[in-house]
Amino acid sequence: MSEPAISIQHVTKVFPIPFKRERVVAVDDLSLTVEPGQVYGLLGPNGSGKSTTMKIVLGLVTPTAGKTEIFGCDSTRVASREQVGFLPENPYFYKFLTGFETLQFFGKLCGLRAKKRDERARELLALVGLEGAADRRIGGYSKGMLQRIGLAQALVQEPRLLVLDEPTAGVDPAGSREIRDLILGFKARGITVLLCSHLLEQVQEICDRVGILHRGKLISEGRLTDLISIENQTELILENASPELLAEIAATTAASGARLVGQRKPQQNLERYFLDVTGGNQ
Amino acid sequence: MSRITAIASNTLLELVRQKVFYFMLLFAAIAIGVAFVASGMPFAEQFQVLKDAALGATSIFSFLLVTLATAMILPKEIEDRTLYTVLAKPVSRLEYLLGKLLGVYLLLFVAMLLMSVLFFVALFAREQLVIAATLKDYGPGPDGEAAVAAVKAAAFNWNLVPAILIIFTKSAVCAALTLMLSSFATSWIFTVMISVVIYIIGHVQPIAREAWLAQSGVNPSSVMKLFLGFTSLVFPDFQLFNIVDEIVVGNAVPGWMFGQVFALGLGYVFIYTLVGYIFFSNREL
Q: What is the domain count for chain A?
C-alpha cells in the first residue's frame, strides 16, 4: 500500500499572545490523511486554522503537538519539500525579476541544472499561458498573471504534491476557469492537490474529498459525493418531455407513495453564461 | 551550496535593481571636492587629507549601505510573503540566512571596489598634477627626480590596500550584527536604530573600559571580568579597526596586526550569524 501524500496526526498549534497570559489555539488535535492522486479541499471560515494547517504541512510553522508527514517524510525536514509545490494566497514574488527569471530562480532553489531549468521555465510559461509576458517584470503583472506565475513556480521541480491556497482569489471568471482546468489537468497526471478555497462551487467541481475546519477543529470530513448527496431523493433530467409524459410521471409517483418534491427547468450557472457572452469559452 | 549562491545572487540583483549604487555619485563628489579644496596645501598634506576623507567616506558609506540593506531584508520578505515561497522549497533557514548575508557581502564588495577605484583615480590624478608642478619648479635633473620620488612616496603606499580590506571586514561585522538583530526584530527601523547604537557603543566602550580600569586602579573582580568579557562579545570592539588611521598618517603597521583584526572580524561574523540563525530557526513565520 502506498504512503499517504499527507498525513496529519493529532496536530495542535497554540500561539501565545505576547505580554498576556492568553493563548490562541489555531489548530486543535487535527488528524487527516490525503491519499496520492486525490484533490483534497480544506474548507472553513476565516480564522478556522486552514492557513496554519498549510504552514505546518509545509514546515513553515512547527506544531505544538502532533506530527505531519509528506509521502512518509517528516514535514519539519527540508527534504520533505522536494516533493511539494506551494502557491500562497495572494502570491508575491520578487517584483524586480521577470517571469522567466522568477522560474529560473525557483528552479535553482530546487537544484535544477541550467539546461533543465531553462527548458522547464519555458515549458511552464507555455503551460500557464505567460509566454508573451516571460520578459516582463513581475511588478507589472496583473492579479491573474501573478496567480499563474505562482502556479508555474509551484510546479517547477515537478512535485508530487501541490498545496494551493485560494488559487483563484481575485481572478476574473475566464482566468479562474483556466486555473481550475489546470488543476484538473494535474489531477489527471496523478499529482495530489491540497486546496484551500472559499469558492465552494469550485471546490465542489474539482475536489474528491473535503475537510471542514471550524475554530481549529475538523468538524466534517469525507468523500464529497457522500457528504452532499441527499440519500432519499433522486433527480431525473429529461429532454423533450411532453406535458402529458410529465403528468404521467407525476401520477405514477403519487400512486407509488413517493413524493414529487419539485419540477423545474435546469439552469446553466452564471459563470458559464458569463463566459459564453464574453467569449471566454473560446 | 547552489541554493545559497542562488539566494545571494538574487539578493545582489535586487539591491542593484533598486539603484543603491547611486550613492557612488555622492562619494565621487566628495573625492573630487576634497581633492579640489586641498589643492592649496603642501603636497604631503594634500594627499593625507584626500586619503583621510576618502577612507572615512568609504567607511561611513559602506556601514550605511550594509546596515540599511541588511535591516530591510527579513522584514520586507516577511511582509511581502516572498519568504514563504522560498522556504516552501527545499531550502533550510540556515541556507536562506547565509544566502542573504552573502548577497549583502557581494554588494559590499562591488560598492567598495567602485569606491576604491574612484579613490585611487582621484589620488593618481592629484599625484600627476603635483608631479607636473614639481617638475616645473625643479626642472629636469637629480633635484627634480628626488622631489618627484618624495611626491610619489607621499601619495600612495601599499598599506592602503589592507586598510580598505579592514574597512570591508568592519562593514561585514556590521552586516552580520544587523542580520542577527533583524532575525528577531519585527521592524527594520528598530533594527537600524539598534545597529547604529551598537556601532557607537563599539567605538566608545573600549575607551570607557580602559578609562574605568585606569581610574579604579585595582584588578577587577571575576564578576566584573565576566561582565567586561560579555560586553566585549556583544558589542564589537571597533577601536581595533582604527589601525586604518595609522595607515593614513603613514605609520608602519605590522602584518600580524592586520591578521589579528581580520581574525577578530571573522570571529564576530561567525558568532552573530550563529546567534541570528538560532533566533531565525525558532521564529514563527
A: 2
